[in-house]
Amino acid sequence: MDRPTRIVVISACFLLALSGALAGTRYWLLGGDLSGLTKDARWRVNIRINADAKRKESYVKLLVPAKSDAQQITAEEFKESGLTHHFVTEGNERNRVALWQNTSVKGPKEMAVTFVVQAQPNQQPSPPPAAKQRAKLLQECLASTDQIQASAPLIQQKARELTKDISNPDKKVDAIYDFCAYRILNNYVPGTVDAITALTTGASDCGGKSRLMVALCRACGIPARVIGGLILNESVKRESHVWVEVWQNERWVPYCPLNGRYQTMPSNYLLLYRGDYPLIRHRYMDALNYSFTIFRVAALESDTNVGTNRWQQLATVASFSHLSPNGQWALRFLLLIPLGALVVCIIRNIIGIPTLGTFAPVLISIGIHLAPLRWGIATLLAFIGLGLLVRWLVDGLKLLLVPRLSVMLTFVIIGMIAFVIITDRFESELGVIVGLLPVVILTMSIERCWMLELEDGFVNMFKHLLGTLSSVVVICLVFRWKTLTTLMFAMPELLLTVIAIMLLIGRYSGFRLAEFIRFRALANGNKT
Amino acid sequence: MGTKLKAYLRLLGAHHILCMNRRNARYIAPGNPRQHYRLVDEKIKTKTLAAEAGVPCPETYGVVTYYGEIKRILTRITTTYNTFVIKPNRGAAGRGVLVLERDKDGKWRKPSGVRMRAMDLHFHVTSILSGLYSLSELPDQTLIEQRIFPHVFFKDIACGGTPDVRIILFRTVPVMAMMRLPTTRSDGRANLHQGAVGLGIAIATGISSAAVCHNGHITCHPDTGANLLGLQVPDWPAALAAARRLAAHIPLNYIGVDLMLDAQHGPMMIEANARPGLNIQVANNTGLRPRLEFLQTLFARGATADQAWAELYPRIAADTL
């Protein structure tokens, strides 16, 4: 072993040991539970109500979220002036209600509740109700009401029309959902919209669409109910949100006909109550006004169970848990780059696959890894195709290099604008690809692709293109490997491990796998 | 599958192939200091060094550095010469090289017969200047120089282009050589991966010993059918001497020197390369490692380049490395 190799091996071993020791210590201090270091978005929600009490017996009722496995509510705090608060549980749905009662003279009153939500991504169907209330609850979820007119002839007829040839109840729900989500237009309407109005006007907001869906399900004999809640995004707003749960296969399955959510809800849907109730009710109050203030908070604060003792706090030193969500978000992206670079080292120096530009696959993968892989690759191919087409068109113009690249760049941007418009129309999240694609790198790759074809022939260009695409696929798979990226985020000292592996690859002087093909003539021929 | 792979690996091991990672880590990284790369990456600089070392190279007709000079210099050259070559100063692998000749009507054409108008020449030069063919895509200079006419030796074994000789030297000792013969498939270019023939040359004698095309061993030229083995390259001692003189003038340990054999003037230096490719091993049907490692032990013992040469050659000839 020569001197540089020796130094590299020794330092790599040192780095491996160091990062292993650091990560191990952290893991041990936290008792194997890294979740506190990597928690997803948490939201602080503040609901503020102002009203003028006309009488001494005035009260305000607000539906507040109950804790469940799907949403952890912490740091709940009430503030009020001239009122007292306590909780009651209402209805068969067992909704949690905060009740503020006037205790003093009439006059302006203020009340507020603040809590922190740790929502789990992709909320799955809710658990079934306890057997005791079950029959009653399901009976209630088939009833026809003032707003959900399940027995009205218009609704009955529509339900029959939609489910005419369908016998499977799940398929019936699908047909009803499709109708409510895509045939009824999204349109804000002031006030409460009932099911019949939504059906006859063909346009409604979340309330009308949800009530219509519930009414149609009930008309088919499928229990369904309205769900009330909030969409969590950084904002100060007055709009709450309403969606639907349908009783299917002994579970409550969620649907949101307004935003096209089918059977799973994103983590920013906060459930406040079940049933078709107004969020706020009152008695003898005047000039009632309310607002929701919502903002993201860092994952680790005093109100979580991580960091409660001194050792656990030690484990959060030099971790990202104290950063703001925006900072965390940026770091999650930054941490992908060394991982991608490591994959490139392996692809280039151990496997020996040619690519267009050394780190272009990493940057492209950062752009597309959030979208489903096949769509990401398809989009990438579409843009490369578009770029090559433009390159072909401008070739005859004999433009200088930089203006030519700029023209291609601008055309690629126009393509991206079209892409955003189209994906936006379908409310697809694919649009996120475009914002993150490294457009300039992509354009350079397209030019390199063209020159390769011109100078080294189509086969060579195809090899490079295929090499680039397969590298992108591999890197995307690494980026989407949740365990790995979470581990990197929770324990940034693992970057030392990455460096150690890079160092070792840097002194690897053996064959690249592709060279077995390259030198095949030598192995097959006889030694002369 | 497993046994086949094992046999395959043993064969590659028996040939002592120098692979890309080993070349980069063992020879280029320690032996070729980065700051001297430009001496070989820029053809104008290499030609200056060659002139100092007394190595013949094609006459420079003109150098274009600024867009404003293109018209003036092109006009001067197109009115003075009947044939010439335009190439990028920092080009690689023959990219951006344009050979031009005047036909009997006074029009400029490529050797393939494709007509080149004044506008096309102008555009080609601007492409070079903007760095299109340049190694690191930096703005570049354009070199316009004398065209080499291949030696009569190549009459039957090169098609549509100019063949060249590549000699790899380690600390000024030539270790392996090959000739790259253009074919119809390679469209006149001397790149092996495009279908040019790689002809392994015995370094001591200059006699061709093996030939490959598209990674398969051949004995005849794919276009002309002419025999390729056992040919004596003309002026071989002169070619070796030229490469050694140039290498001694360049402070890089591991280089490839490309020469062309001109019909009148003999071996002429075209360019040098700080990262010479590994396909030369395929053309010679043997690996570089034994030769390089043998030289390393000699140099470690304090041998001079001449002593090392004297010791290496008999061993290569006798195949006792």
Low-confidence stretches of chain B: none
Rounded to the nearest angstrom, the radius of gyration of chain A is 30 Å
Mean pLDDT of chain B: 85
> What distance separates the N and C termini of chain A?
31 Å
What's the story with the biggest beta sheet of chain B? 7 strands, antiparallel
Q: Helix proportion of residues of chain B, in percent?
A: 25-40%
Predict the CATH topology of the domain at 42-126 and 227-247 and 262-298 in chain A.
Immunoglobulin-like
Describe what you observe in this structure:
- The complex is a heterodimer of chains A (528) and B (321).
- Chain A has 18 helices and 16 strands.
- Chain A is an alpha+beta fold.
- In chain A, α6 crosses α7, α11 runs antiparallel to α12 and α12 crosses α14.
- About 1% of the residues of chain A have low confidence.
- Chain B has 2 domains: 209 residues, ATP-grasp fold, B domain (D-amino Acid Aminotransferase, Chain A, domain 1, 2-Layer Sandwich), CATH 3.30.470.20; 86 residues, Dna Ligase, domain 1, CATH 3.30.1490.
- In chain B, the strands form 2 sheets. A 7-stranded antiparallel β-sheet of chain B has the order 10-9-8-7-6-11-12.
- In chain B, α4 crosses α7.
- The longest helix of chain B has 14 residues.
- The interface between A and B is medium-sized, with 31 and 39 residues.
